[in-house]
Amino acid sequence: xxxxxxxxxxxxxxxxxxxxxxxxxxxxxxxxxxxxxxxxxxxxxxxxxxxxxxxxxxxxxxxxxxxxxxxxxxxxxxxxxxxxxxxxxxxxxxxxxxxxxxxxxxxxxxxxxxxxxxxxxxxxxxxxxxxxxxxxxxxxxxxxxxxxxxxxxxxxxxxxxxxxxxxxxxxxxxxxxxxxxxxxxxxxxxxxxxxxxxxxxxxxxxxxxxxxxxx
Length: 215
Hints:
Blueprint: H1 5-20, E1 30-31, E2 34-35, H2 40-53, E3 57-61, H3 67-79, E4 83-88, E5 101-105, H4 112-121, E6 128-132, H5 138-148, E7 157-160, H6 178-188, E8 192-194, E9 210-213
Parallel strand pairs: 3-4, 3-6, 4-5, 6-7
Antiparallel strand pairs: 1-2, 7-9, 8-9
């Protein structure tokens, strides 16, 4: 989102303070008692997207504690429609159980055994959204984008999380990651565009990361 330089400096400074204060900020957040490591501004944007787009299913890579999966499932409870498929390296007994959440595990979010489990769960769905939040190193994000884009239906979002790392403006020492993957991806696939309107709250972990499938 384009804002004046002084305001951008202030926003980026706040984002870094928030990010670098992890033990008391994003690493200390929960949704209904379940850890949920997100920026509150991004969670607000998610509820706007889910309400507007009404996806039949959200596919999420990177479950961790399951807080974001539960958050999305509770949004679907309110709407009376939708479910979450959350993919991670391992199943854990301490994750929230909810009738709208289905957990999948595999060696990697891009491993064949994941898609063997995923494909049958998508039968009968016509509106599908994807959130990528697993390994943030560029080679992995590149691979996820190439694979998971096919599951996103026109008019829905492919969200690449934590694209603010590697100096955009967070975690300058991380190295190439989601942001760099996004820039290459949208140049190569014109079905997806960066929707800067989803950064209207200014502070986001997902810089340029809300990708709308337009065709």
